Amino acid sequence: MKFRNIIIIVIVSVFILAGFWFLCSKRTQTIEEVALQEVHPYKDAEIKAVIIPSENNTFGYDVYLHGAVLIHQPSRPGLPGNVGFATEEDAMKVAELVIKKIRNNEMPPTVTIEELDALGVLKYE
Predict the structure, then answer these.
(1) Domain extent listing, the chain
(2) Which residues make beta-bridge pairs with 60?
(3) Which pTM value belongs to this model?
(4) DSSP β-bridge partners for residue 47
(5) N or C end: fewer C-beta atoms under 10 angstroms in the chain?
């Protein structure tokens, strides 16, 4: 009878320890997954770009977040002067890049000269 009680205690202990281990390992995994996830608060936000006129018959853009102006960019970012983009299409290319950066939570959504060059919008006609 004593041996049977010991076996029952051992079996119950194993189940308790296994359950505790499972719960702890599951919690740790969940914390790691959360830590690795990037938070994108603007992923599904209402974001749009509007092309605006700028100096010397050039173009800039405004970026709206939920209907409010988030970015007013009348000139080419990262370059000296107040001259905008040569075409509306060039301004829209950069505005779309900025929106992509906002959706990826790259704040502020800085645009580099290399990115402007890659988009082919550095020229001014």
Answers:
(1) 1-37, 47-119
(2) 52
(3) 0.68
(4) 65
(5) N
